[in-house]
Please model this.
Amino acid sequence: MNVPAPIAPLVDQFGRVHNNLRISVTDRCNIRCFYCMPADKVQFLPRKDLLTFEEISRFVAVMAPFGVNKLRLTGGEPLVRNDLPTLVAMLVAIPGIEDISLTTNGILLAEQAQALYDAGLRRLNVSLDALDPQKFHEITRREGYEQVLAGIEAARNVGFDPIKINAVSIRGMTESEIVPFGHFARESGCEVRFIEYMPLDADNRWERDKVLFASEIIDVLRREIGPLNPMGTQSPHAPATDYEFADGRGKIGVIPSVSQPFCDQCNRFRLTADGKLRNCLFSLDETDIKQLLRSDAGDSVIEQTVRDSLAQKWVGHQINSADFVQPGRPMHSIGG
Model:
């Protein structure tokens, strides 16, 4: 398919071109991972405050002519939003959109995998931080381990490819999961991606000493399972560094958000479930897109508002700086 070149790409002050939009469809979730949200008494957004599927689709349609061609649907847990396959089908139909993916915790995936695939979704990221059921419960503070595994299996059977497993790595908690995940990658056909623990929790308890670094994870896998070779085909904008076991069985990715920030190649911006534009995951400021959509603002006004926001994007997230300030929103409210 010949896709027309963007009219004028969305470029920030550092020359980074933004073509990757992450869309949160809800702040609700059916588990309570401690690094993402409180255990109890969470104040969720009223339904009326969420963007409708039509509003989301309109925003994407406005952005697509300016080069936005990659979308990721997130939450909270996106599969708790009713009729999500309907939104997928609406987005697939927008000219210029080439790639749509979904990040899910997998608990509801088995019952929705076929409908999502039929709507046009092809790529999945499943958040699973532990293969040990007890450790899973310790992290998520809820049940659901067996449902996640069933969801991954259902997605494989339906035909999703690739399926990536996102595992947040936390020192003092998940070291014992590294080798099992390495074997899981070799046996399941899924790519396992280890993500360094980031300061986006609701309780502000993140400590740098709890970050299990990507380099350590690769060292463990090489020592305990076998040689890992870097894969040379990845995009420079991809947050993960990808490896393959030397015998060709199993792919591993690491996302070194803290130890090796990739901000200089960032091509992503975010739309929260309540319609706020964030030019960085760690932004302290937001831009109200919902108000524009609900006041019938013209496409050019929306476009310029996005450009103005991206013009203010930082050079990097500053996690490793004494000046770092954690965002007021926890991860479930921002969108993964």
In short: The chain has a mean pLDDT of 93. The longest strand covers residues 163-169. The chain has one domain: 20-334. Residues 20-334 form a domain with the TIM Barrel fold (CATH 3.20.20.70).
